[in-house]
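Side project, low priority. Logging it here so it doesn't get lost.
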Amino acid sequence: MGGRQYCMLIFILFILLAAFGLNIVGILTDNWYEVKTTDPSLNSTTKHAWNYHYGMWRRCFDTIPEGIPITERSGKCITTYRDLIKRNEDALTNDERIKLHVSRAHVAFAIVCGAAELSALIVLLCGMWPGNCRRVLKGGLFLTTSLILFFATICGITSGICFIALRDLDQSRYAIYPDGVTSNYTWSFMIHWIGTGLCLVDSFILLCLIRRTYDDVTELGAYSAYHTM
């Protein structure tokens, strides 16, 4: 393999590591969405209840409201993942079931996205490792990794769309926010989309490398370009 392709593969690995790291940070942090009061005339109870930010697993308040059980608290945060656990859905209304399933999809697709990114990283490293993998076809390796990353991209996009749909339902259909309360997406949400975008970029670069590999064979007669080593 030429030095230029090695440099390109190092660049691809760097992007893939960045995408995986950003996705993990997005999954583990609690800053996907922020709700805050903007009306200073609101009473303290309302301010305590409507000043918070949250992610997949927890909701964190500026001042935690009274009445929340100690078992659900973690500092100024409360756990929300229990809301996604299997329950008797017959007791739920149709709107509650829709919200539950979309919430589960948001979390599940984000986790699958991270797992696919990790799989792509392992496949690429194993395929390029100068040990027992010397006869791996580069075209097949690049295509396999590209398809895994494309799958990760689709999962990341689906997770993000599910989260946006949930927030739109909160504002329009359910109208859960009282007057004097605003909401907006925050940095964990942005990080998730950046990581998803990097996956798509990596997938496209790998497809370009496949084309370059076969061009080397066709134009230069470099049949060794088929193999990783």
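Brief comment: The CA atoms of residues 48 and 65 lie 6 Å apart.
Revisit when time allows.
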